[in-house]
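Re-run with default settings, no changes from the original entry. Doing this only to confirm the output is reproducible before filing.
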Amino acid sequence: MSEQFTRREFLQSACITMGALAVSTTGADKAFAATSTSTPNTSGMPSCDVLIIGSGAAGLRAAVAARKKNPNLSVVVVSKVMPTRSATTMAEGGINGVIDFSEGDSFELHAKDTVKGGDFLVDQDTALKFATYAGAAIHELDYLGMPFSRNAKGEVNKRYAGGASKIRCNFASDKTGHILTHTCLDDALKHGVKFLMDHHMLDLSIENGRCEGVVLRNIRTGDIAPVRAKSVVLATGGYTRVFWNRTSTPFIATGDGAAAVLRAGLVFKDPEMLQFHPTGVCHGGTLITEAARGEGGILLNNQGERFMKRYVPNKMELAPRDIVARSIETEIREGRAFGHDMEAYVLLDVTHLGKEKIMRDLPQIRHIGMLFENMDLVEKPIAIRPTAHYSMGGIHVTSIDTMATPAPGLYAAGEAACVSIHGANRLGGNSLCDATVTGKIAGTNAAEYAAKADFGAGKRLNDLTLKWTSHFKEITGSGKGNVNDMYALREELGAANWYNMGIFRTESKLLELADKHAEFQARYNAIRIPNANPVFNTAYTEYVELGNLLLASRAALMGATARKESRGSHYREDYLKRDDANFLDWKDVVVGQFKIEERKY
């Protein structure tokens, strides 16, 4: 591999076609098929041993772990886009993990901060294991050659992150997620992981309670095909695009995994728990990393006041994200912000840090400020407003020890999964270590399962494939319709969710949103795409993604309506108090050594 590894080299050396998964294989595809210990594929249906959906950090770590567990298994990563365009690349601030115990930090403190930050909806045994694994993950990434920023001693550098009692957020400038992605991708290529690029998962097949594979659509050709797999890992990311233009995540974050699980009748846990990052750029929501506040950035209202002293004087800008986001929105609602309506904002000021420090430790957000707001944050404060950022809810996973769902053969990892690490609010810096930790566990256990399993019969998988083939013809075959109807609906869905199920929620707003959702679904069902050409029919791709967003939105709405309390990111103005008696035990939360108490900072 050359030092300048190009997309063309990646496609030629690491990517396969669907033909590699079928009986007839030639060339590189045949060489790939020969690595599999699968029973001969006599059905004619494409198949592989371990199929991973999603190419962010969780998917890449799962793939490497599966290959290391059993190098004789065929391991394939399916992705809608290049791995370097995943949501992981957009994580900026750092990755939490205790690797320095000299100043009193410990795995227990990391776990305690995580439990408290999640407003005690976190399973405490899970948090303790997670904190231990997170420290090991930092050492492993360092060993792999990830170019972390370094302190004067040459050690991995770290900074404060919101809600942390100690400095444990290890970082690579303010491009940590981007650099971590490249490190994980390099490792995947080294271990011979193969990629099925430009493929979109349409559905998940569960037959007799067991996962038997997925239905994929080739975005380039339009071909819809089943893929049998002995085990499947869903690493499809979150669903914060339900807020459409007010989110920091990429356009691919459309909840494909969550929607597929819901259609399959499996559990989608804590869907109402959506995190709003305090600092997105005013126009569009692209992220200004928490590292800016970790390095000493301050928040100012239109009176020039450092207003966080009014809300959490002990933590100021480094309070947990849900608290800072609500504080900013309160300033906006009470008239102490700049601008109006969706253009309202407060200021994030880092000018006092000096150009040298900004250029060394925060170069990416300077670039973002110039790109999206046409201003240089070296010279003046930047306009910011909270933005939807992360999904604490996700596919129900039974244990962090396996990352297995209740359906044998199906695993989930990263933001797509919910194993109760983050509870009602994720701490800054905990997402990247979640992805690397849970991805590795899921891949290891998926490989262990696949080594002993047989392929499912594939009947339901075949039926689902026929259903989706018919669906494409139905939606595109008439030659009628207006694609702008779909884009208008997408914008309206995002705005309705933001105003009614955003940072502040009430019963009346949620009931109003339920009526809107019913209207949106009816309009969605009536939409037709006036293009029957399957080749690069991106309008149909976006149509399917919008359907997934509608489904994830309804799940979040049901959870938000049913949870008549305020907890973490879920803030009900008509139920301001946390209600442990009624809402901590719908599914028992594991309580351990950390006493449940009022969450104060």
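The domain at 15-273+392-458 is CATH 3.50.50.60 (FAD/NAD(P)-binding domain). Residues 24-31 have pLDDT under 50 and may be disordered.
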